[in-house]
Amino acid sequence: MDNLLDEFQQRQKLVYDSDFQNTTVLNFIGWLKTNKETEKIISELSEETRGVELAKKADFKTPPPVENPRDSVLLGLYFINQLGSGTKLDLLATSYGHDKEPEKIIRVYINPFFDYLEKKIKETIKVDNKPEHIPHILHGDFRGSVININSTLIKSSQTIQNKSNFDEEIKKELTQLLEELNQVLSQVPSDKINEAEAVAWAAESLVEAKVSDKPNPVKIEITKESLQKAATNLASIMPTVINIAEKIITTIQKVGN
C-alpha cells in the first residue's frame, strides 16, 4: 500500500512538470479512477454537487465564491476534470475570474485538491498520525512565505500533540482548526502574504503562551488580541480566517479549565 502513495506523488509530479498539459492530466485522472482506493475518494467527492454549483456562480470577472477549505477541494476536482476534458488552463483562468493569472487556478483550487487526495491516501494506508505534510509543490514568487506559514502552524500542531496533560478532544479540535487555518492561509493572494504570516505567527504565539509550564495570563490575553487583530486584517478577502481564529481562541481557553 505504501506504493500507492509513492505512485500518487510521482504521477502528481508529472502533472506539474507538464504545466497541466491536458493529456497528462487525463492520464492522471484515469489512474485515479482505476485504483480502488483513489477511485473511492474521487467518487465520494463527485457525489457532492457544491463544486459544480460554485463554478456556475463564477464568470470572467468573478471567481467562484469559496467559503471554506472543502469548497476549494471540490472546485479543484471540478477544474481537474475540465483540464482532463481538454480545456486549457489559461482558458479556465479567464472563464472563472482569474484572467491572466492561471497560477491561481492551481494555487487556490488544484493544490488543495491534491493535498486532500494525499491526506486521504495517507489515512487509508495509515502511514502515520502526524499533522499533515507541508505541500511539496508550491507556486508563485512567494513560495518561501507560504512554506513559513505551513511550518509555523505545523509546529503549533506538534506542540499541542506533545502535551500529555491536554484533554484528547481539545487536542483533536485544536489540531483540526490549525489545519483549517493552514489550508485557508495557503490560498491567500500574493499581495496579502504578510498579513497571512502575521495570522500564523499570532496563532503560534497564543499556543506557545497557553501550553507553557507556567502560563502567563497577561501574555495569553495579548497574544489572543494579536490573533484577533491579525485575522481582521484579512476579513475583506478571507472572512473564514476570522471564524477559524475565534474558534481557536475559544477552544484554547478550555485548556486547564
Q: Any descriptors?
A:
mainly alpha, 0% strand, 257 residues, 70% helix, 2 domains, 12 helices, globular
Q: Largest sheet, described in full?
A: none
> What proportion strand?
under 5%
Which range best describes the helical content: under 10%, 10-25%, 25-40%, 40-55%, 55-70% or over 70%?
over 70%
| Structural shape | globular
Q: Tally of extended strands?
A: 0
Overall pLDDT confidence: 83
pLDDT < 50 stretches: 127-144
Structural class: mainly alpha
Rg over CA atoms, rounded to whole Å, is 19 Å
Number of domains: 2
Q: Report the order of strands and helices.
A: HHHHHHHHHHHH
Count of DSSP helices?
12
Our measurement of the CA-to-CA distance between the termini, rounded to an integer number of angstroms, reads 42 Å
Written overview of the protein:
- By secondary structure, this protein is mainly alpha-helical.
- It folds into two domains: 2-125, no CATH class; 143-252, no CATH class.
- 70% of the residues lie in helices and 0% in strands.
- The chain is built from twelve helices and no strands.
- It has helices spanning 2-17, 22-34, 36-46, 50-56, 69-84, 89-95, 102-125, 143-161, 168-185, 193-211, 217-232, 239-252.
- Helix 2 crosses helix 5, helix 5 (69-84) packs across helix 7 (102-125) and helix 9 runs antiparallel to helix 10.
Quickly describe the structure.
With 257 residues, this protein is an all-alpha fold.
Q: SSE layout and pairings?
A:
Layout: H1 2-17, H2 22-34, H3 36-46, H4 50-56, H5 69-84, H6 89-95, H7 102-125, H8 143-161, H9 168-185, H10 193-211, H11 217-232, H12 239-252
Helix pairs in contact: 1-2, 1-7, 2-5, 3-7, 4-5, 5-7, 6-7, 8-9, 8-10, 9-10, 9-12, 10-11, 10-12, 11-12
